[in-house]
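Question thread 4412

I'm putting together a teaching handout and wanted feedback from people who do this every day. The idea is simple: show students a protein as raw sequence, then show them the structure tokens that encode its fold, then repeat with a second protein so they can compare. Below is the first pair exactly as I plan to print it.
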Amino acid sequence: MTSQFQREGIFLYLLTLLGAWAASTQGGRRSECPSCGVQDKDVMIEVAKQQILQKLHLKERPNITHPIPRGAVVNALRKLHLTKPRMDGLFGSSNWDSDGDTSETDQQSYEIISFAETDYNKSSTKLTFQFARDNEQNVHVLQGHLWVFLKSNMTGQDSQTIRLHMIQEPQGSRTLVSQKYLEPGWSGWQTFSLKQILQDFFDEENKSLKLELDCEGCQNMPFMVNPNDSHQPFLVAQAKVKERSHHIAKRSLKCDQNSNLCCRKDYYVEFKDIGWNDWIIKPEGYQINYCMGLCPMHVAGAPGMAASFHTTVFNLIKANNIHTAVSSCCVPTKRRPLSMLYFDRNNNIVKTDIPDMIVEACGCS
């Protein structure tokens, strides 16, 4: 219900913008669809911004008040690349600005890096990870790993046992999850598998995951490097989220100067130009693209063309009589995903392929 109200709010806002545009063109040809001549860049950018937020299930852009240190981000991204599954190409290419085709799927894939809030001391370290998700989403965890930088300060022949516990709230009981053995004098990054722990966590719709590391045989010597710039513990997870499937219809050509019929107009916006480069890591911009041109009766689309974000907006325009003579609109008929790497509102790094974001073809509805 909440998401429905959010969508209605977005559409009403876009109607206001497009309504203002329509009012400014009252003297023009009223027989045209609103999309036939829309080239207002402010409107297109606002549509793109609202669409990105909607697809990421965000009410507003994240407010980055405490940026993650660059060293920690670089380390985490390297580990994400190392643990990336390759079984079926689920997460696609890391070529963020590629214009290549991406296969359609009814499941949106996510790669998440979450940095821990740490309560550090010599004998144990508590780690807290914060997550936000839509309760209506069905999350399937493919992989999950905790990365911590451990250091043995012991000498001699005895090894130390590092134990990882999950803390159950609200009672505070501990459950042993995994353990690692450290040889004397050893130091480096260690991983703990958390796939099932994360799956149970999301199934129970919790928002914070609490873990604790302690050491057997360390004789009260510190076993972790004090979490700082490049040694901050983090969690890497890959998951699929069930999404509504989409279907495509016919293709159309890019716009040129020789035709005023329905076509695709290419438009690129850089995130730094709209003040979003502080929370969007990659790509550097978004190939918005939009549909424009005339839709004579003989090129109108066949019934059953898939509804889209753009189609819905223009249907609302029709319903609200912004252009009373509208009969057929030039709308997207094929779109592809946009790969994004960004900070969410909990400062987690998320990589996902947002479906149906980049317009590839247009047709008449």
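The second pair follows. I'd like the answer to focus on this one:
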Amino acid sequence: MRRYVIGDIHGGYKALLQCFERSGFDHNNDLLISLGDLCDGWSQTSEVLDELLSVKNLKLVLGNHDYYLLEWAKTGKASSNWLQNGGDTTLKSYGNQFPDAHFQLLESAFTYLKIDNAFFVHAGFEIGIPIDQQQADIFLWDRSLFREAITQYQAGVYEKLTPFDKVYIGHTPLHRYNIDKPILSGDVWLMDTGAGWEGGRLSMMDIDSSEVFASDQVDTLYPPGSGRQRY
């Protein structure tokens, strides 16, 4: 069994299929850890969740966008903030009909995941504070760990930042920094290569070998102007 981690997908079903094909991913035997944000970006969120449900050994970490989608599924209410940040495209993907299997997938997602001494979380956490003492929304929204990691990466410094052997985070797109592949800063892997935005790619990595399998630029897979603009 091979073990993979994948960054923020954001409705990019075609990009997900490319990553699976290029890695030779085995839906029945390989492990896939998703760092969340399955939705809100491109037009195929429903197809993304269907595809992930076909992965026998899937472990999903909840992202902030997934949280908004789950809240809509529970309450029928869509926040304006969510709609303005890709939620409108997600709702069109579903036609306001949300399958129970998709609800169960998001409802059962992990806030974070620890395997051996590797830590998987959507956004990050506060350095120096025990994990079990941090608020749940930190794991969905934090950027402090990313900022520490990208700052030392840009400075050419590679000091250990956390008590874990490796940490894998998404949430903050690297293409803002003109980086189009996952990078390791100290002990932190930054996995979001901007698949939710024009100009970005989806990246999937073999956890044990660190080999990366990337999609094409996601905007080349969809009609012009259908994605969120790079910022």
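Top answer:
Good format. For the second protein you could add a caption like this: Residues 3-221 form a domain with the Purple Acid Phosphatase; chain A, domain 2 fold (CATH 3.60.21.10). The chain has a mean pLDDT of 96.
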